[in-house]
């Protein structure tokens, strides 16, 4: 879409949002306000660019009489280039899920207790990063290992209400999906040998009920007793819920809440997110041939990152990122590695837009 067309759409949205009648339909008003917020930074940069272009023209005219204005024209030309580049980034096709919160799952892989302990390290890393970002986290379901790690855990991560457009949790965590590998001496190792184990991470955008239609006849709901760390019973009633979506084979469970109804609601929340992610993946595959990418967002079969404790090193294999601050990363400082992934994705999309 041309910039003039976006400007026309922006003015039209302003008029619609100023009409009290529009706000009678809250869903419609939210949709219009969201689009208006998305366009605001684009229009601001566009207006600034137009002003700079006018200033360059005026400075060039004045430079014919006063050479001092030639320097001003050159400075304005550099500013113009920066604004053009900013607009290129703002006009890139947006990921439709960038405003969404996420459901994040961490599962222990091969490696027994060591893998479960590493899964616990990853969970703490994401929780601390979320705290730094001002995000709200909620553990939906968790199965603990005997030594205090996680066999699997499901967490909802929600951005603060004032998040800027396109800056939801998904924007920053969507590249975390995949196999995360750890190299260290396990606490269970008596000989001091370095072992390699892994944990899987799955990140999907959280879905609204209206986005995913689920037929009750497609569900098999099983109930069982909840259990705590080390298999210790924490509930004497069948309050835990496992839901199987028969058409896709997706299985989700929840046992953290006290009632069967609450656990079912939480399990359905995870199921909606998983179904939305699967539907979007299928739509993307049908819309275009699978393209080679430096960043693959939800391929759990691919080793994406290595955490090497003896060298205090973290390596992301998709973009060649390497740093020796593993202790800080595990304490929630993910800015470096996430920034490298986001930059690589942006660069790839800019190159694709130029073809």
Q: Could you describe the 3D structure shown?
A:
The chain has 355 residues and is of the alpha+beta class. It is built from eight helices and eleven strands. The strands form two sheets. The protein has an eight-stranded mixed beta sheet with strand order 2-3-1-5-4-9-10-11, sandwiched between helices. A hairpin with a 4-residue loop joins strand 10 and strand 11. The longest helix is centred in the N-terminal third of the chain and has 38 residues. The radius of gyration is 25 Å and the shape is flat. The two termini are 16 Å apart. About 5% of the residues have low confidence.
Give a short summary of the structure:
This protein is of the alpha+beta class and 355 residues long.
Describe the sheet with the most strands: 8 strands, mixed
Oligomeric description of these chains? single chain
Strand content: 15-25%
- Roughly how many Å apart are the termini? 16 Å
Low-pLDDT windows of residues = 286-301
Helix content, binned percent = 40-55%
- Helix tally? 8
> Can you give the mean pLDDT?
85
3D shape? flat
Summarize the helix and strand pattern as letters: HHHEHEEHEEEEEHEEEHH
**Adjacency order of strands in the biggest sheet:** 2-3-1-5-4-9-10-11
What is the β-strand count? 11
What attributes does this structure have?
355 residues; alpha+beta; 8-stranded mixed β-sheet; 3-stranded antiparallel β-sheet; 11 strands
């Amino acid at each position: 879409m041309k910039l003039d067309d976006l400007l026309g759409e922006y003015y039209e949205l302003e008029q619609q949002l100023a009409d009290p009648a529009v706000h009678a339909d809250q869903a419609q008003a939210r949709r219009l306000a969201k689009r208006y917020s998305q366009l605001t930074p684009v229009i601001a940069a566009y207006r600034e660019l137009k002003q700079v272009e006018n200033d360059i023209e005026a400075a060039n005219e004045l430079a014919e009489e006063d050479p001092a204005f030639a320097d001003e024209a050159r400075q304005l030309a550099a500013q113009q280039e920066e604004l053009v580049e900013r607009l290129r980034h703002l006009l890139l096709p947006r990921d439709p899920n960038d405003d969404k919160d996420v459901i994040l799952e961490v599962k222990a892989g091969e490696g027994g207790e060591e893998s479960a302990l590493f899964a616990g390290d990853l969970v703490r890393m994401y929780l601390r990063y979320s705290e730094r970002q001002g995000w709200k986290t909620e553990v939906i379901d968790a199965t603990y290992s005997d030594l205090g790690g996680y066999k699997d855990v499901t967490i909802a991560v929600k951005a603060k209400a004032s998040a800027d457009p396109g800056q939801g949790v998904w924007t920053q965590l969507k590249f975390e999906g995949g196999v995360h590998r750890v190299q260290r001496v396990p606490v269970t190792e008596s000989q001091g040998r370095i072992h390699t184990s892994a944990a899987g991470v799955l990140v999907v955008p959280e879905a609204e009920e209206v986005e995913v239609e689920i037929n009750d006849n497609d569900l098999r709901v099983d109930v069982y007793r909840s259990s705590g760390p080390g298999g210790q019973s924490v509930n004497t009633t069948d309050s835990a819920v496992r839901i199987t979506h028969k058409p896709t084979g997706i299985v989700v469970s929840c046992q953290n809440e006290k009632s069967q109804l609450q656990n079912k609601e939480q399990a359905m929340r995870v199921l909606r997110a998983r179904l939305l992610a699967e539907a979007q993946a299928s739509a993307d595959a049908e819309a275009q041939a699978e393209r080679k990418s430096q960043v693959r967002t939800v391929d759990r079969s691919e080793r994406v990152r290595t955490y090497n404790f003896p060298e205090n090193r973290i390596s992301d294999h998709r973009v060649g990122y390497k740093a020796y601050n593993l202790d800080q990363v595990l304490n929630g400082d993910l800015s470096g590695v996430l920034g490298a992934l986001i930059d690589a994705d942006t660069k790839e999309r800019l190159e694709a837009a130029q073809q």
